[in-house]
Amino acid sequence: MNQYWKKCLLYLLLLPPLAATANPEPPVIVIKASKFLFQPAKIELKKGQTVILEFTSSDRMHGFSLPDFAVRADIEPGKPMRVSFTPDKAGSFVFRCDIFCGDGHEEMAGEIIVQDEG
Amino acid sequence: MTHSIDRRKFLQLAGLGGGATFVSGLGFNVFAANGFSVGLPVEDFYFVQLSDTHWGFKGADKNPDAAGTLQKAVAAVNALDKQPDFIVFTGDLTHTTDDAQERKRRMSEFKDIVGELKVKHVRFIPGEHDASLDKGEAYQAFFGDLHYSFNHKGIHFIALDNVSDPAAQLGPTQLAWLQADLQPLPANAPIVVFTHRPLFDLYAKWDWMTRDGQQAIDLLMRFQNAVVFYGHIHQEHHHFTGHIPHHAAKSLIFPLPAPGSVPKRAPIPWNPAKPYNDLGFRNIEAYPWKNYRIEEKTLT
């Protein structure tokens, strides 16, 4: 190995791990809305962990309302909507559709379970 | 028409309180004569509020007499000793359907049934089951304007629509209309507001709110004698935002649990041992510029 390649190897060894320096995108959780359910309807998260909630609708306008965290979004067919969400408290929290969508609208709900870190 | 409501009897009832009778205790000041009251008759009277009839609903475990409860309510109102000055239905007249023709059929049937009321002065406001899926198109064809106001014996009544927008908003156009409607009224004008959904955030987790309802409440705050009667939550409920009382009425199809009392907002099943339990309507006696008295009526 010549001097050039030895230096390159040394620099590579001295570089901090890639994961620690890059700013990785938070995980994306896709939530599909359709009359009259969310899929998934149960989402487990960790307190303090930022996630991207991506909403899609396969039929008509729906809404996503998570009042415990003051998070809401309109979900239009053909227009995926992304919301960054960092739960700052642990527990079980209900989310529901808040755009009236028909006979099963009142039952269109789900649950986010936030667990304490560690 | 002048009703001979006995004020002394009212005061006795006010002193008793409790039971099935809710006495608002608003303590309205005597209304001073001014431009608003000049020329308007000042009389005690009463009106009836019915709500959430959901005509077309099917669910034997929740109401095995869903096809007969509205007629039963009409008969109960017709049987009142003294007939009210007018009757108001505060929304969800019909149960929702995706089928536009079925929606019209239900509205037509509803209108035929309530046409049997002896009192012909009947007011309507929409609920989300009537108006959210077509932005109130069918509702307006059968029942008229989505929001409006009228005067009756010195009280200014306002009907608001917080449902034809499926996002449950009054919207800037209606709020501007409300502001203009209220603008000429003096601060001591008696005002009664009808809505379907609560204007205030009763329980956001169950979506029992109006997204921009606070803006309407803000417009009402300058009035000393404003009161709101609404439906939607299928139970009697009383709440104040500042000095403004908000009174929710029982349903005429199935009751719902108290806000936040159970994990899920699901209808309370029919109890064969207590049929029509917690279904009913209310009489609202108005003593202009003095007080209101609410008497809850339960179907039996």
Protein architecture, described:
The complex is a heterodimer of chains A (118) and B (300). By secondary structure, chain A is mainly β. Chain A has helices spanning 3-14, 18-21; strands spanning 28-34, 37-39, 42-46, 51-57, 62-66, 71-75, 81-85, 91-96, 109-115. Chain B is α/β, with parallel strands linked by helices. In chain B, the strands form 2 sheets. Chain B has a 6-stranded mixed beta sheet, covered by helices on one side. In chain B, helix 6 packs parallel to helix 7.
Structural class of chain A: mainly beta
H/E series of chain A, N to C? HHEEEEEEEEE
Query: How large is the radius of gyration of chain A?
Result: 21 Å
- Unreliable runs of chain A: none
Give the helix level of chain A as a range of percent. Answer: 10-25%
* Amino-to-carboxy terminus distance of chain B: 30 Å
Number of helices of chain B: 7
Instruction: Enumerate the strands of the largest sheet of chain A in spatial order, edge to edge or round the barrel.
Output: 2-1-4-7
Low-pLDDT regions of chain B: 1-39
Instruction: Show the largest interface.
Output: A-B, 18 and 19 residues
Q: Which fold name is given in CATH as the topology of chain A? A: Immunoglobulin-like
As for the number of domains of chain A, it is 1
Helix percentage range of chain B: 10-25%
Estimate the global geometry of chain A from the Cα principal axes: elongated
